[in-house]
Amino acid sequence: MEPILIAGQWQRSHDEAGGFRAVDPTTGEAIGPQFPRSGPRDVEAALRAAGAIADELAATKPARIADFLERYAAGIESAADELAATAHAETALPLAPRLSAVELPRTTHQLRQAAAAVRAYAWTHPVIDTQAGLRAHYAPLHKPVLVFGPNNFPFAFNAVAGSDFASAIAARNPVIAKAHPSHPATSRVLARIAHEAVHASGLPEATVQLLYDLDPALGLSLAGDRRLGAIGFTGSRGAGLALKAAADRAGIPIYAEMSSVNPVFLLPGALRERGDALAQDFFASCTMGSGQFCTNPGVVMLPEGADGDAFAAAVAARFAATAPAVLFSHGVQQHLAQAVARLREAGAQVVAGAAQSQGPGARYAPTLLSVSAQAFLAAPEALQQEAFGPVSLLVRYRDAEQAAALARAFDGNLTGTLHSAADGTDDAAYQRIAPALRARVGRLIDDKWPTGVAVSAAMQHGGPYPSTSHAGFTSVGMPAAIRRYAALHSYDQVRDDRLPPELRDANPGGVQRCIDGSWTTADIGRKA
Amino acid sequence: MEPILIAGQWQRSHDEAGGFRAVDPTTGEAIGPQFPRSGPRDVEAALRAAGAIADELAATKPARIADFLERYAAGIESAADELAATAHAETALPLAPRLSAVELPRTTHQLRQAAAAVRAYAWTHPVIDTQAGLRAHYAPLHKPVLVFGPNNFPFAFNAVAGSDFASAIAARNPVIAKAHPSHPATSRVLARIAHEAVHASGLPEATVQLLYDLDPALGLSLAGDRRLGAIGFTGSRGAGLALKAAADRAGIPIYAEMSSVNPVFLLPGALRERGDALAQDFFASCTMGSGQFCTNPGVVMLPEGADGDAFAAAVAARFAATAPAVLFSHGVQQHLAQAVARLREAGAQVVAGAAQSQGPGARYAPTLLSVSAQAFLAAPEALQQEAFGPVSLLVRYRDAEQAAALARAFDGNLTGTLHSAADGTDDAAYQRIAPALRARVGRLIDDKWPTGVAVSAAMQHGGPYPSTSHAGFTSVGMPAAIRRYAALHSYDQVRDDRLPPELRDANPGGVQRCIDGSWTTADIGRKA
Known about the structure:
The structure is a homodimer. By secondary structure, chain A is of the alpha/beta class. Chain A has helices at residues 40-58, 62-78, 80-91, 95-119, 163-170, 184-201, 216-223, 237-249, 268-287, 306-320, 330-345, 373-378, 380-383, 400-408, 427-438, 480-483; strands at 4-6, 9-11, 19-24, 29-36, 127-129, 134-139, 145-148, 175-178, 208-211, 230-234, 254-257, 264-266, 299-303, 325-326, 349-352, 363-364, 367-372, 391-397, 413-419, 441-446, 487-492, 513-515, 518-520. In chain A, the strands form six sheets. A seven-stranded mixed β-sheet of chain A has the order 15-17-18-13-12-19-20, sandwiched between helices. In chain A, strands 21-6-5-22-23 form a five-stranded mixed β-sheet, with no helix packed on it. In chain A, strands 9-8-7-10-11 form a five-stranded parallel β-sheet, sandwiched between helices. The termini of chain A are far apart.
């Protein structure tokens, strides 16, 4: 049985609550060693260890935190081959380019972006009112952050390496990582590298802890434990809402990214200008990573008429010609089959795919469905359920007015996309549809497909409920993602030498601060 | 029966669910006209009217919003005498300076600060990544905000005039104001002025709506209505937690400010230097406004020994010599008596006050209690219950180590205060206690008393749960308070002329924007 990481020690699980092995999705066969499913004693040990060092970590110099994040990124790069091979075996995601050339560099970039935000004090957002004698910034929670990782990004959203992890540590909070049980060995390697970096950077040993799996009921009781400062979650809506209910009752902020169908509007002029390219790119966006993206284009609004028909036919041919895609697990396959069945029950017609699994392991045929706008508007809730996998629903609309009505029928989503003509012929339709779509999504996209989430300060990887638990926060992009794991602290007439460094009169590091309403790197002059 | 304000019309309540009158707290007699208690039809009408104009309001030019906020402030000033007299009659708060010279100017200042933040786009916090083609800012919710006003600030936190109101409107969201039933006539006058300003500014008529009272069960069902974008609440912990549970279940962000005992640490050197002044100021802070402040100093840590004894005696004499204070209502009086009884049951000794009400109306004697640090540490939960009114508990501590243990025993609070010697003799003790206190409060204060909340960009009027529902937000201070009622919106490759003004390449208004990591008012150059 593999050890868990608690209190800076790789140790045997306190509980013998059972174990599990990873599964090769391509074969359905168990692979690798046994990993423990943790019980209440492991959870209690992790909470105590993290709680015991939370104040020490909060008082740690930012440079040391940044050093850790950078060492960790370098360590991941040194183990890139091992990591990519391990993740490939556990997830069946392509070794290259996806794992080795896209997701791994994204993960190290994210850790380094977090380090840069720490060194620049960017996430602390210092605001000073010299007249009132008040100074404010964002500060650590002084409590551990619990991070639940999803199945679909073994590196970039891993509970012990991804954006929630980097954000929580950047804000100087200990992390209790609950890895996703579909890739335990990958999480084990990452935690090993993180642990070495913790040690080398001189951070408290319990800064990073790892559990591989929990009984769902134990997960819920942990999510409601007031010793936690906050929770990060990426996963299904069902699990997210259950954890949110537990956390809410205890007054613990939870940032849950839960589900999204990412509506896409194809406008007539765009189809006319570049219908073939759009069909090709849509197919690629919908089937990349077997469609297991939170930004997968799940519902595509397509005009009626010849250009729309040609697009649908071109896409259908591509879907039909493609072998069933390997999914992360039989569970994902089962959920997907159920979701497609529900969409069909609600009136969607199968255009291509929806075939039974072929071959060993967990597979599902890339599937294209279609429905009229009228039918969609008659059952919008049923027809915008997420089908996590290589599945998309075409909604055929009559005109801009009906497209705008469709936009208004969507609930909160991560992204919304409009493809419009370069020559301006779609501008009136765009102006009709975009405002309604804008209000319902976190990221509004022109003329490209939604998969692909840049790690950028201007990213919003979030959106209105129920796509996430709060429309004001992003789970990707520094420094904003860090601020989720922070408390707003104000200092009222506090003497200069007692202030945190970035709030003092002197600003030798050139931190950007908002002083009396203006952003500046200047010192504050001594008062007369 | 007075009319309610729905859909831009002063109209008869749709429901005849009963009415109520204000009560003069000094006499206990009903005063003024009958006001309706609204039922489900009023609530539905308000939701529909606000929902119908939410998109229009979101698309309104910021200058028009600022114009409204400024007109409203001017209108309040024009009606200052009527407002102060009305609020005085309904709350028994002193006409001057409190109502006319402090709270009313604070309220108009707050509205104008919100207007300034709107004109400068300060709350939208534009962030631009030119390389990634991403631009982000905070934007309206496109749904109405429900605001519950408290009893204790008839102007500055009034549901139809206070910080939540100003913040929600500044972010271009309609407000459904649920006034506090203890000052309906004051709320009526404010809403009349707000309505006139809405009209004069050309905002949609349903931008501001007013209900005077709701059955609690109806309030809970309203708080869980997904047509709302967010909720602001200031009031008791019981009501706040019930509303929070309802809102959480529906995924509606709620910003609830609920309770605080505002721990104050008097360090030995400070007592030695200025014990008399501290005693005088403490008494004033604890009894001002009959102690009905959320930042009332409810628990004061005082050293054992002669200086501490002298301070306690001086304060006790002041408390004992003071007539019972008029409270807002019999309900407040009853809750206060119960809270004092619970503190006594938990081991606190009465030093002064705790007497029965004298005279007509709702009154309570300024009350000082005392307990040992050891006893406090044995029952910290029971002894840090809020007693809303002119009541404070002295906790006598032995040394800095014990004081630090006390600091660690506090739950989340709005403020925490340390009074230390100017000559540096308390510095070691300060360094021991302050970090633990810092982690548990929103605003850390040196050498003054916590009552008095400046409307400042660097204010944090908020704190860790359960003082509020989220430690990352403030309910006072622009622009931060506005951001509570906003969604984070990102634009990905969106064409320049389709962007909101403050995210376009050209920046003719000189908006402060964070471009590629640096705050600047510059334009963005055209790409080659």
